[in-house]
Each structure stands twice: as C-alpha cells, then as structure tokens.
DNA sequence: TTTAGCACTCAAACTAATCAAGTGCTAAGA
DNA sequence: TCTTAGCACTTGATTAGTTTGAGTGCTAAA
C-alpha cells in the first residue's frame, strides 16, 4: 500500500525520468513537488518505495529510476492519458481525411500516422472476423503462359499470385479446377481448407491436371498468405533511435522479429477491450527487454475487431502515448465505419 | 606512372587494409612482400604513392590506407577477381536449383543469395526490355463490391490492385471500359499510355462511368507501378554492420534511399557490359560516401538485360566481391535461360 | 514525523604518464 | 643513384590517478 505522498513521488519520478532520461534525485523532487517537504523526507519515502521494488538506483549513490514494477504501478494506478495536442488532431484529420479505395490503404496509412505522432514504431491490423472463410477462387489467364490465382475470403481479404505454366493453357482444365475448388472448399474456414488440401483434394485434382503438384504449391501458398494476419508497420527506422550503444545484434533480431509475419500475433498478444501496456520483461521475447508495447483494439461493429500498437523504449512518456493510442483507435473506428457505410449500404 | 614495385605496394596496402581494417605500415609490408627490401625503402615508395594521391595517412604518424583514387587504380589496373570458393558454388547451386514458378521468385531469391555470399546488401533487377508495352488490361469482379484491376505488359510484368466500388458492379460498364482501354492503349509504351491518360481517355471513359475519377486513379496507380523498375533487396540489415559509431541519421537516410523505389535507378546507374565499381564519393549521394557499389548486367538474349548489384563499405575485399558478382551474373543468366526455355518453347 | 548536517559513494570528466606503431630524414654503403 | 641502418619525432591508445558534483543513508535534534 502506498500513501498519497508516495504515489505523488512515484508519479513524479516516472514523469521526470521518462521526460529527461536522467535518474531523479531527492533534491530535484523536493523543489518540484506541490507539497513543501525537505529532500531528507523525500529520501525516506524513496527508500520505502525502493523497499517495495517500485524504484531503483543505477548505482549506490545515484538518483532513482522506475523499475518495471514501478512503471506497471504507474500505468495501472497513476497515469492519466494526456488529451491530444491540437497539432496531433490536425495530423490525424488531414492524413485520414482523403479518399481511399480499399481498407488496406486506410490501415497502412494508420501505421504511418501513429508512428509520426509517437516517433516510435507502429503496427496496425485490419478488422478481422474470427474465422474467415474461403468465398471464392479464380484462375485468370494472362497472356501466353501466365496465370493469376486469386483467392477471396468472406471478410474481403484478397490474395493473389501469378505463375508461369509450361505448354498451352487449357481453358477447360482451368475451369474444371476452379469449379472443383469452389464446389468443395468454398464456405470452409481457411484452416479447414488447408487440411483438405493435404488430404483428398490432390487426388481429385489429379483427374484434371497431369502434374498437379505445381498448382497445389501455388494454391497452398496463396492460402497460407491469406490465413496469416496481414499487418502494417510504420516508422520501422525509429527503432534505430533507441539502439543503446549501437548493439547491432539485438537490433537485427528486433527487425527480424518485426518482419516475420507469423510471429507478430504472438508478440501483440490477445485482443482485449482495454488498452494494454506491456513493459520490458513482461514480454517474453528477449529482443524486447528494453521496450514497451502499447496495444489497443478497435471495433467496427459487425465487421469485426482490429488492432493498433506502438513499440517504443520502456522509458516512454506513457501519459502522452496512452492519450494518442486511445484517441486514434476512436478515429480509426469512425473512419472505417464511414468507409463501410459508403461501400456497403 | 607507377613502377612495378609501387604497384606491388599499392596492391598490398589495399589487400591488407580491406582485410584487416587497420592502416598498413612500412615494416609489416617489408616483411610480407615477395621482394626483399627494407622498411625504409618501402617508406620512400609510400611517400611517392602518397604524393600521387593514391594512399593517405589517418594521422601524421600512422600507417597508410588507400584513398578513393587508390581504390580506383587498384580496381582498374591491379585487381584480379578471385575464383569462387567451393562453398560459394554450393550455396549458389542449392539456392538456385529448386523449382520456380515465376521470374520474380528467381530474381528475389538471387538478391538473398548475393547478400549471403557477400554479407553485404544486394540488389537485383529482372531482365527488362527497353520500352515495355501495355499488352492487356482486366477488371475482375470479386465478391460483392470489390474489383481487381490487372495490367500486363509484353515483357510479362503483371501489376494488380483491388479496390472497392460503391453501388452495384455493372458488368457491362466494366466490359466497356476494359474494351476501351484494350482498344485504345494496348501496344503503346507505358509512358505513352500515361500521357494519353491525362489527355483524351478521361473524356471517353466518361461515357461509360458517371464518376470516372476513382477508376482513373486506380488505373494510373497500377500503371505507374508497372512503369517503375521493380527491384529486390537482400540483406538490408547488413548495412547495420557498417554504421561506424552508430550514426543513426546517416543510417536512416541510407535506408530511405534504398526504400525509395524511384531513386534506385539513378543510384545503380546506366547499364554497361562491364562490371562497374563505384567508390565512395564517386557516387554523388551523400549517404553513400563510405560505401562502394558494384553493379553488373546480365543478358538473357531476346528477353533483355537485367542487373545485379552489391553495396558494401568502401573498404571491401574487391577481388573476392568481383569474383562473386562476375560468377553470379553468369549463373543467373544461365538459370533464366533455362527457365524461359522451359516455359516458352 | 520532519529535517539539518555530515560522512560516504560513485560515475564522469580531466590530467599525466607510458607504450607501441609508425613516420621522415640523414648519412653512410653498394 | 639507389638502398638502408639509425634516430628523433609524432600520434592515438591505454592506464592510473585526481577532482568534481550529484546523490545517498544515517544520526540527532526540533
């Protein structure tokens, strides 16, 4: 249990340290705090806070910095999200105001906006229904020897891939394959389709194509891409700003993590209604020990739930960041609702 | 004019320095050189080389390092490309040996291989005909309100983009627009198409669509993408290894340069038959002052000419790198010829 | 419970001393 | 004329020692 005064001190330590990056000493605090006490008193209180593991020293005679637990307490109990700055509002309005022709443009643009506002790295995921289902498959012949495979899901995701075929393209064969897939697989969830693709489908396709393997490769490829959550990243380069003493290796593993599409879901974690903050070692990933991750979901009614996130140093100004993330999720949801309303109704 | 002995010394200085990164002194050279002279003699020769601007000191009593002019002389007159190591050959064979379904897979894979072999950053461009022409355009309706626009050029490039439309999709309108484009624009070079797109096409399309602007945006978009040379990058993270004293700003501008699609052509420069080496300030771009760029073209007969390149520190082992680039361009050309032969004939 | 005072700690900044690698120059030798 | 041994000199790196300043914990008095 913390006393009022201890909370006040903890809050001040976090605020000061996140702003300046310098450990905070008792004298500076005494001068700054609204109550009138001496630095010695502050020292006593700080010792108590340290006892509880909320703040720590960088060396035996240094000022204090927040521990991970201290940040956590601050985020859970003390922080109040800052309201947006007028300038921030302008940025959002103007970047999100234009005309868009597809959801993905809005989502990818959002990642850029978020990274600009925060000067950290931002992630965005489009609204996604729980289990999206295969809703259509096409094979479009292009030119002489080229075919484009297109896969559509019921949540509107489209994946496509072109590939070359040897010999002439037989229109009837293509049609037969497309019909087969649409008959047998449309309506199933993508994992189900993947499972069937390993089982009975190859046999059936063998009836129409003499060498189905190539085709199955392509189809499987497009399918896995569609099953993976596509996410957008903004401001990747901002990570460079926080590479303390230029630790190239950890930077590299950080970037590999970000670029590995299949890992991002596990990093961002489960959606939850609240805005979630994970701090340093609260994330299991080694590369993220000095970072904090703020994630938030946004709802677009029947179109499902999406996610936005920002990744910055543990030592980030949480009140401002929480304000930005909170406000932006609202703006994005609003924008998407408008978008769906325009195209769907 | 350099004497035989001076050449020998210059060669040794470059070789030593590129291998170790440490300025090369007269004593070490005297011990290492095949001829038997004292370090004092070497010092005299080095003074002569410095006089000519080919080598320089890092401070008044240091060993010598090559100047940009020294590297240039070395590359132009002294270097002999290393033969590939057996291990390198294995890497190429196994990474390029698999089955590919499209040119782009081979080209993108090549960027990865090159970066692995060199541990630098690699670029690859697919073989490109001089002025590729529009050879086909489609609008494929997907689901309720989604359309995919597909553009094909006569060199086999495919660009596509999906977009949403408000209101019901009118199949006849779509067909009319597609027919219009195919009638009026197929066969023209892409710049010509772009020009027409600003001029008479909008009027004509206005006859079929009540609000053509959205469509024109999309079409223009796909068109510009198709007109830009698509290139692949391998080993971008390797640039981090050479950020001397973690100069974040110059790293950032380096990455922005690499990611800006429209600038890369100007960076890579004009194709030429030879393998070209550009060193440090021979490139005008500020961000590249400490880098060297090796570019090489490769020919795939009637399918045009492509390009590969590697970007590494000025202080790179040129003989090995030239060997790798030289050998790889051959391998790649061979692989592509095989590929075209399989699919085209 | 608060606070003035004091002894103590530690990182950072600065100074001085030493070392090793290298240079240019001179003068003697081939 | 070219080569080379010898020597004085320069410089960056490393190490050890000092000083400074911000900060701490503890004690004893208010």
Largest interface: A-B, 41 and 41 residues
Ends distance of chain A: 54 Å
Radius of gyration of chain A: 26 Å
Morphology of chain A: elongated
Oligomer: homodimer
- Our count of domains of chain A comes out at 3
Describe this protein's structure.
Two copies of one chain form a homodimer. By secondary structure, the first copy, chain A, is an alpha+beta fold. The first copy, chain A, folds into three domains: 75 residues, Orthogonal Bundle (Arc Repressor Mutant, subunit A), CATH 1.10.10; 145 residues, Beta-Lactamase (2-Layer Sandwich), CATH 3.30.450; 94 residues, Heat-inducible transcription repressor hrca homolog, domain 3 (Enolase-like, domain 1, 2-Layer Sandwich). Helix content of chain A is 48%, strand content 19%. Chain A has 13 helices and ten strands. In chain A, the strands form three sheets. In chain A, strands 7-3-10-9-8 form a five-stranded antiparallel sheet. The longest helix of chain A has 27 residues. The radius of gyration of chain A is 26 Å and the shape is elongated. Chain A starts with a helix and ends with a helix. At the A-B interface, strand 4, strand 5, strand 6, helix 10 and helix 11 of A face strand 4, strand 5, strand 6, helix 10 and helix 11 of B. Chain B binds a DNA duplex (30 and 30 nucleotides) through helix 2 and helix 3.
């Amino acid at each position: 249990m913390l006393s009022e005064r201890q909370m006040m001190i903890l809050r001040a330590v976090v605020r000061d340290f996140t702003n300046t990056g310098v450990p905070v000493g008792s004298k500076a605090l005494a001068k700054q705090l609204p109550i009138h006490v001496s630095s010695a008193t502050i020292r006593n209180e700080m010792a108590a806070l340290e006892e509880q593991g909320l703040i720590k020293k960088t060396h035996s005679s240094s000022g204090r910095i927040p521990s991970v637990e201290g940040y956590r307490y601050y985020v859970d109990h003390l922080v109040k999200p800052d309201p947006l700055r007028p300038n921030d509002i302008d940025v959002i309005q103007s970047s999100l105001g234009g005309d868009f022709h597809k959801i993905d443009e809005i989502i990818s643009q959002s990642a850029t906006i978020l990274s600009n506002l925060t000067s950290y790295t931002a992630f965005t995921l489009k609204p996604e229904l729980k289990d999206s289902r295969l809703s259509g498959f096409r094979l479009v012949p292009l030119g002489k020897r080229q075919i484009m495979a297109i896969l559509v899901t019921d949540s509107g995701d489209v994946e496509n891939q072109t590939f070359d075929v040897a010999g002439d393209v037989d229109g009837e064969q293509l049609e037969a394959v497309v019909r087969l897939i649409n008959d047998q697989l449309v309506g199933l969830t993508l994992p189900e389709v993947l499972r069937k693709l390993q089982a009975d489908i190859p046999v059936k396709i063998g009836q129409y194509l003499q060498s189905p393997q190539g085709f199955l490769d392509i189809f499987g490829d497009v399918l896995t891409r569609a099953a993976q959550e596509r996410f957008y990243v903004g401001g990747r380069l901002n990570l460079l700003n926080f590479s303390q003493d230029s630790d190239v290796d950890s930077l590299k593993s950080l970037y590999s993590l970000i670029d590995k599409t299949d890992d991002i879901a596990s990093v961002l974690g489960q959606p939850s209604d609240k805005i979630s903050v994970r701090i340093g070692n609260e994330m299991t990933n080694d590369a993220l020990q000095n970072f904090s991750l703020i994630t938030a979901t946004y709802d677009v009614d029947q179109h499902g739930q999406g996610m936005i996130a920002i990744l910055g140093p543990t030592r980030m100004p949480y009140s401002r960041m929480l304000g930005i993330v909170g406000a932006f999720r609202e703006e994005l949801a609003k924008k998407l609702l408008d978008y769906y309303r325009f195209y769907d109704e």
